[in-house]
Structures are given as C-alpha cells and as structure tokens.
C-alpha cells in the first residue's frame, strides 16, 4: 500500500572530493551481502544520484506522483523510507574522509534544478538533509540554509 510522500531527503555518498561514484558502485555498496563488504539491503538508498558533472542518474524507478509505492521505497534514512524520496550527490568528504561540502559547480546547478522542480511539483513535501533525521554529517552542508539561498522557504 502506498504512503503519502512527506520528505525529500538530501544525501552525500560520503566519498572523497573528486571521486566519481557510479550507479553500479551504489548498487554494490548497498545490495552486496555484508560478508562481501556491502550493506545487504534489498534496495539501494537513493532514487537518484547527482554525478560530479551534474548528470542525474536514476537508480530506482518511481512514478513521480505524491505517493511512495512499496516498489519505490529506498533505504536512505531509517524510519523515514516509506514516506520519503532520497537523492544523493557524489562526494561529501575531504581527502581525509572528514565531512565537507564537495559539490562541484555542475552538481550545485543540477541539485538546484532538481530541488526546485521537485518543490514546484510537491510544495507540501518537506526538503531535509539526512543529518536532520539521523546523527550523521550527511549531506555535509546545511540544507535549510542552502534552500533559503536558492529561494525556497518551507
């Protein structure tokens, strides 16, 4: 049974600045058994990934409506998955693996376009960072400040 979409959660891949992450990398990290270095999940954590060059890659299909159908659920934030859509950008750490906003100019442009389009279509859905619902640094920037800087007040 579908749940009403309540959140768009922004994430980072928690990888070093400048290192690309492919959809296949995400699938391997999330879906591989723990014994093989993965997380052993049944579904990846994100619907879309924003690559270093600003390209947006769809990882999990969805029907783009205001509901989260069971087949659309991704594992982005424990306790929020059935009511959220999750997107990530490649990066989020400096070369020493400390949290850092590493979004490239192309990623910033793509994320702004993605979020503005999402907000236009689903104005009642709250846009948050993963760090707003979990004790994590992800996505390594203050989402609410960034939203205000691009003209989204929620």
TrEMBL record:
InterPro entries: Amidase/PGRP_sf (IPR036505), Amidase_domain (IPR002502). It comes from the Bacteria. Residues 3-139 form the N-acetylmuramoyl-L-alanine amidase domain. GO terms for biological process: peptidoglycan catabolic process. One of its GO terms (molecular function) is N-acetylmuramoyl-L-alanine amidase activity. This is Lysozyme. It comes from Duncaniella freteri.
């Amino acid at each position: 049974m579908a749940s009403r979409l309540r959140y768009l959660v922004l994430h980072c891949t928690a990888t070093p600045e400048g290192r690309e992450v492919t959809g296949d990398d995400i699938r391997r990290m999330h879906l591989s058994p723990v014994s093989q270095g993965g997380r052993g999940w049944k579904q990846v954590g994100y619907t879309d990934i924003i690559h270093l060059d600003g390209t947006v890659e769809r990882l999990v299909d969805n029907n783009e409506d205001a509901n989260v159908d069971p087949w659309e659920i991704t594992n982005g934030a424990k306790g929020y998955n059935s009511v959220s859509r999750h997107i990530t950008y490649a990066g989020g750490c400096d070369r020493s693996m400390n949290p850092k906003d590493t979004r490239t100019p192309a990623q910033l442009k793509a994320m702004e376009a993605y979020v503005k389009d999402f907000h236009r279509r689903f104005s009642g859905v709250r846009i948050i960072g993963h760090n707003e619902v979990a004790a994590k640094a992800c996505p390594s920037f203050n989402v609410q400040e960034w939203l205000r800087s691009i003209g989204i007040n929620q």
